[in-house]
Amino acid sequence: MTPNQVTLTRIFTAFLAVGLFSVGAHVLAVDLTAVVLTIAAIGLDGVDGYLARTRGLATTFGAKFDILGDRVVENLFFTCFAASGLISLWVPVLFFARGALTDFLSARAGFGQNAIGKTGWGRSLVSSRTSRASYAALKCMCFCYLGFLLSVRDMAAGTAWSRWFKATGAAWPLVTAQAITLFTVVFCIVRAIPVLWEGRRILLAHDRVPKAAAVGLSR
């Protein structure tokens, strides 16, 4: 498979996982399949980049398509769980706004010497293997737990998981879900800081009106 085909597969896998999480009558086998697909959707994020580097297939389009895949997967899962009432609607809104702004700044900066994230602290927070792996693991844990909780909450009464959910009063499972989501949101914002800081030069540069243009506007 080519890197772009892997990215496309990742998006399709995420849609399938969310679809299984959202079915009305929850069955353990179906929910476990959704969890496996969720892990695959997150794990494939590193496969397309690996193939691009090792096979010499890295392209500008592929890099942008990979970012698009990240945004689709993130917003797909968070929108699903927000619509189900497990998390606040502001979570997918924040992820969408953050992704739109950082992707805009990165696209304007371009690749190569002008790319954003060239500073040491920027690479550590954004593009280092530790940061990327930690962020992927956190998102995977967040999506799997929220999906599991959604399944348990909507299971038919009388099942073992349903009895467990009711016995806990649904309090600490939901608190745990909010905590994991909060950590994911904070990590998302922290990783955006280098892009926003280094990208400020783009916003400031376009805010300056050339002298000739300013004279023309004053007439």
What can you see in these coordinates?
This protein is mostly helical. It has one domain. 79% of the residues lie in helices and 0% in strands. It has helices at residues 3-21, 28-54, 60-83, 90-109, 120-127, 129-154, 160-167, 171-198, 200-205, 211-218. Helix 1 packs antiparallel against helix 2 (28-54), helix 5 (120-127) runs parallel beside helix 6 and helix 6 runs antiparallel to helix 8. The longest helix has 28 residues, at 171-198. The protein is globular and about 55 Å long. The mean pLDDT is 80.
Q: Based on CA inertia axes, which overall geometry fits?
A: globular
Oligomer state equals single chain
- Rounded mean pLDDT is 80
How much strand? Answer: under 5%
Give the helix proportion (percent range).
over 70%
Radius of gyration: 21 Å
What series of H and E elements makes up the topology? Answer: HHHHHHHHHH
Number of DSSP helical runs: 10
**What's the story with the biggest beta sheet?**
none
Distance between the termini: 59 Å
Domain unit count: 1
Q: Unreliable segments (pLDDT under 50, ≥5 consecutive)?
A: none
Q: How do the helices and strands line up, and which of them pair or pack?
A:
Layout: H1 3-21, H2 28-54, H3 60-83, H4 90-109, H5 120-127, H6 129-154, H7 160-167, H8 171-198, H9 200-205, H10 211-218
Helix pairs in contact: 1-2, 1-3, 2-3, 2-6, 3-4, 3-6, 4-8, 5-6, 5-8, 6-8
